[in-house]
Amino acid sequence: MNDLIPLDLVDLGFALGLMLLTIALSAWQRLGLAWNLTLATGRTIAQLLVVGYGLEFVFAVRNPWMVIAVVVLMVGIAAVVTRNRISRKVPQLLPLAGGVVLISTVLTLTYVNLLVLRPQPWFEPQYLIPLAGILISNAMNAATVAGERFVSVLNTSQLDIETHLSLGATPQQATELIRRDAIKAGLMPTINSMMVVGIVTLPGMISGQILGGVNPLNAALYQLLIMFMLAFATLVTTALLIAGIQRQFFTPAAQLQRF
Predict the structure, then answer these.
(1) Quick one: 196 exposed, middle or buried, by C-beta within 10 A (0-12, 13-18, 19+)?
(2) Taking the complete model, does pTM exceed 0.90, yes or no?
(3) Which of the listed residues 29, 45, 61 is the one where a domain comes to its end?
């Protein structure tokens, strides 16, 4: 296969023309999205250039602490986004979200590094940072969906839950069905993706590798690895997050609180 075609500033200028056309079409249709599209374009350019230059430096230095710092930074940002999307009222949700995303990412990457990829050195940024980014992003989305569903149903089903509690049920028993539904909701996008991958869609991982000149079969094998990693990480993330949120909603005397 041919090597990846490099892009220069002229090529990116023509690529930017697609966004200019998008903004013009939006204005023509009077969608009121011109400013949002302009802002999104500017942020995309700035963020990806910063990431590109930053990762180029990290890859060149190859320092394990710097690689770990990048992963921790991604986890911190994901935790803030997750907390903001679920609820700002639930106490200790920010450290809880950060902790569960970090735990699921570390567990998954440790398994893959030790048993599957076995990179040398173990902190090889070429593998660790992209895989961590994919895991953290999907764990954040799954946690957001599951956490928002769980908090919303707990707040709207207070009478039903308190009825179960008054009949002698524990908080875990009173919220068992709600907990299961929330975890299923968080995991369902990953399951749906696995059902249609390669048939309806070509995910970014396999598309990027094929564009980079990797053999399509090898790219497909890496995508298999990614999908299995995501299934494990999203389930661990959502299960731990829901368990943590549940503890916040009940007092030591098993009384339901509302946030």
Answers:
(1) exposed
(2) no
(3) 61
